[in-house]
Automatic annotation (TrEMBL):
A Pfam family matched in the record: CMD
Domain Carboxymuconolactone decarboxylase-like as annotated: residue spans: 19-97
Name used for this protein in its record: Carboxymuconolactone decarboxylase family protein
InterPro entries per record: AhpD-like (IPR029032), AhpD_core (IPR004675), CMD-like (IPR003779)
Organism per entry: Ornithinimicrobium faecis
SUPFAM superfamilies noted in UniProt: AhpD-like
Amino acid sequence: MTGVNLGKQHPDLYRDVIALSKNADAAVAEAGLDPLLGELVKIRVSQLNGCAFCLRMHTRDAITRGETTDRLAVVAAWWESQYFTAQEQAALALAEDVTRLPVPEPQAWDNGSLNEQQVSAISWLAIVMNTWNRLAIRSHYPVAP
């Protein structure tokens, strides 16, 4: 057996993840963060997890929201570019911390650019995106041209 579509096997759980995802997106908006920043977080988390399905989806969503190809091209190395604001850098670093679960130490994302509500919203968004990546990867969602 190469893969089992987890959503089809347990549709109630899948619907719960959809609801959680919508709530995380709403938390981002309620925290006053740009939805485009949410897409960048989803893309970065998906890069770290190696989820081609989610990468394609959220890259397309980011382009639809007005993201540039230049910024998308360097999001995997955001810290080496001058394309991202301090808030975007903080959010991307926080999403990486949530995804990698580092040993506690001074946090690079804690530069004062995000308030507590925004830190919580980005953390939830990264947690949900990690869940989606794992669902897509474990279910072997097809990614073809």
